[in-house]
Design brief:
The chain is built from 17 helices and 31 strands.
Length: about 725
């Protein structure tokens, strides 16, 4: 829908607000929504005034697009949607998250949208998720009244009578009902409500053909090109069909309610009455609340951030296969006006280790197991392990450009598919082996079906570790000898040796341990600069944020001088306003394509690494700052602009939320350790710690063999007393 503008109130600011009495309130942890009571219902209060950052907001930039982090994320675990502050659904791909869009205003204001809200207001009074759910609530105030709109992709009891094609994971008790449901209730005064539904199929190429269903004005169907799903619009409002869309208008008085449902399946009928719509909305919220109850979260002020990240990761999971999408969008720019616009609607192998670590740590073993099986199955059919796969394990992710779309804020090209699936990225073998090792540790056994795959992966790492590749950041250009790629080849050989012993193959374990030692020694010889800092690639003095993974994968002990020097060098030299860059573009890319923002993932990695090397206070301060930079709904994109704190890149980003979980868990556990140590010192004296000598360096190079159980399954988070 062309010309929809975003809210002028800035969502930036700390994750708390100040009440009238001066006390500090964290709205994400309140059991009841904060705000004033209007007409017997509590209405979400307006957010903090915008920060004084000049040029931050999209309207100030002269753009009709909302800021990336102003979008709300909805999911039913089979489809995803993004909702702008104006109440416009601006991204929805059907029937899969990597299918062509039916609402694409995110990438072109004429590519389709679905708005519900007051006719005379585009700026909401407040927005939030209902606590513990993926149900979005938007509160609107007009000159004459107040209304509350709730949006959700509906989840209900399992309803499929026949076996579903492509559904390979064990079916749960609930599944998607293939319905985007929107309810509205007037809680005070009177409001002129407007609804406009304008789908444009095939990424904005084909406008819908509308026809009424039945004898009344409450149901219509939108048809698109062959192969596209038909869209059924059902509402308690009377629908009009004009132009390329369906629309409705109605004056709601206090106590009045209405609903609109857009469905694309034929197994479950959409709600026919307000009571039925309200019941399905409640049932969807209850599904998410009960799912969250399965997790284990610390009784800590940052608990809400872990919960929102867990819900986001669950929403980014494709239920039929267990695949975890990197993000729900394509081509949101990493650089405003630049060309780093990629399609992230696929599943990356390198996400596996952090996904399993985070999900196991929070107690979501079922989701971790499902993702493990997806990765294992996709990789088992592939002689050459790819960096990424489609949500049903597809290997061919051919990249193309959609020239007819103007792009987010005019940034092109808009890409679908991802050519990086053909790149040689040596870190994938280590990511796969580390994820299998975590899974095996969690179950105390190695799945037999995975053993042939693991043998191939370890052997591939051993055969190719000495060769150049494109690296973890998928840098386009000539391959190079990236240190982090060799690090992950070491992880492959190291974890492979441990798994071989678990599989009772000691000779193979000895062989792989020897290979791991060779890679380890090579990195320590060629991957260091004159300061004793690990560098991005052999023969270069450039730093790289991926080297923050060294203490996390236990390459060397965290108190090793080289690890400490590397972490502190990155913290001091590869940051902008305290936030971490992936690398310096001018030092890394053969043809730099514009300035890049700081990487949210890398900044959270720095938190974990600082905690590992004992810089607890610094880790806590950085983590607190990063948590304050999340969206008003607790979501993160891939990058953060260090000057304006704008979110950049695809959204919401799974890898960022995985790194957030890892960082918060590190800080919480380090805080517990310090508290326990302090309590112990009060009860008895402790001997001073002996400083580490440089003569210990050779022994620390063999630390991974002396400490065979350091890469353990993360302990589940327990409540703190």
């Amino acid at each position: 829908m062309r010309g929809i503008e975003s809210s002028p109130d800035d969502r930036r600011g700390p994750p708390s607000r100040t009440a009238d009495d001066g006390t500090t309130i964290d709205p994400s942890t309140e059991p009841e929504p904060w705000g004033e009571v209007v007409g017997g219902e509590r209405v979400t209060s307006p957010r903090q005034p915008p920060s004084a950052t000049p040029g931050y907001h999209s309207r100030l930039l002269g753009s009709p697009f909302p800021a990336i982090d102003e979008y709300a994320f909805l999911s039913d675990r089979e489809a995803n949607a993004l909702v702008a502050p104006s109440g416009n659904v601006e991204w929805l791909c059907l029937p899969r998250p990597d299918a062509p869009s039916v609402f694409g205003a995110l990438l072109d204001r004429a590519a389709g949208g679905f708005r519900l809200g007051p006719d005379d207001a585009m700026v909401p009074a407040g927005r939030r998720y209902l606590p513990g759910t993926m149900v979005l609530e938007t509160t609107w105030r007009t000159s004459a009244g107040w209304v509350i709109v709730r949006d959700a992709l509906v989840i209900g009891p399992w309803h499929s009578a026949d076996r579903r094609e492509g559904y390979r994971r064990p079916p749960e008790d609930h599944e998607a009902e293939q319905c985007l449901l929107r309810t509205v209730r007037c809680v005070s005064g009177a409001v002129e409500l407007a609804m406009s539904c304008e789908p444009v199929f095939d990424y904005g190429r084909v406008e819908a053909t509308w026809t009424y269903r039945g004898s009344g004005y409450n149901s219509a169907v939108a048809s698109g090109p062959q192969g596209a799903p038909e869209l059924y619009l059902t509402s308690s409002l009377r629908l009009g069909l004009q132009g390329r869309g369906a629309s409705a208008r109605s004056r709601l008085q206090e106590g009045d309610a209405a609903f609109v449902a857009l469905s694309w399946g034929d197994e479950v009928a959409p709600p026919a009455t307000w009571d039925e719509a309200a019941d399905r909305m409640w049932r969807t919220g209850e599904y998410w609340r009960r799912w969250l109850q399965h997790g284990r979260f610390p009784d800590h002020p940052w608990k809400s951030y872990l919960e929102r990240s867990a819900l986001t990761l669950k929403g980014l999971t494709y239920a039929p296969t267990g695949a975890l999408l990197a993000a729900t969008t394509t081509s949101l720019p990493e650089t405003p006006g630049g060309e780093r616009n990629w399609d992230y609607r696929f599943s990356w192998v390198r996400d596996a280790t952090f996904a399993l670590w985070g999900l196991y740590a929070l107690g979501f073993d079922h989701e971790a197991d499902s993702f493990f099986h997806f990765i294992a199955e996709a990789a088992s059919e592939d002689e050459d392990l790819q960096p990424m796969y489609g949500v049903e394990g597809e290997r061919d992710l051919e990249e193309s450009v959609l020239d007819h779309l103007s792009g987010y804020q005019g940034t092109t090209p808009v890409r679908i598919g991802n050519a990086a699936h053909r790149q040689r990225q040596h870190d994938v073998w280590g990511s796969l082996l580390d994820s299998v090792y975590l899974h095996a540790k969690s179950r105390d056994h190695l799945p037999e079906f995975a053993w042939p795959l693991l043998k191939r992966a370890v052997q591939a790492a051993i055969d190719h570790w000495h060769e150049p590749d494109h690296g973890i950041w998928e840098i386009r250009g000539e391959p190079r000898h990236y240190t982090s790629s060799k690090l992950m080849c070491w992880v492959a050989a190291d974890r492979g040796a441990r798994l071989a012993r678990l599989h009772d193959e000691p000779d193979l374990a000895d062989l792989w341990e020897k290979a791991a030692e060779e890679i380890h020694d090579d990195i320590c010889e060629h991957g260091l600069d004159s300061r004793g800092v690990f560098v991005q690639r052999y023969g270069s003095g450039a730093l790289d944020a991926s080297l923050l993974l060294m203490p996390l994968v236990r390459f060397l002990p965290p108190d090793d001088p080289r690890i400490r020097a590397t972490v502190l060098a990155i913290a001091d030299e590869l940051t902008q306003d305290g936030l971490v860059l992936r690398y310096r573009v001018e030092e890394t890319e053969e043809e730099p394509s514009g300035r890049e923002g700081t990487f949210a993932i890398a900044s959270f990695w720095l938190v974990s690494a600082l905690a590992e090397i004992g810089e607890s206070e610094r880790a806590c301060r950085l983590c607190e700052r990063l948590l304050s930079l999340g969206s008003s709904l607790g979501l993160y994109a891939e990058e953060l602009d260090p000057d304006t704190s704008r979110h950049l890149g695809n959204f919401p980003q799974a890898f960022t939320h995985l790194a957030l979980i890892n960082a918060v868990v590190h800080v919480v556990r380090e805080g517990d350790r310090i508290a326990d140590a302090s309590a112990s010192r009060e009860s008895r004296p402790r001997a001073a710690r002996t400083p580490r000598s440089s003569d210990d360096q050779a022994r620390s190079n063999r630390w991974h063999r002396q400490r065979p159980d350091t890469a353990e399954r993360p302990q589940k988070m327990e409540g703190r007393s």
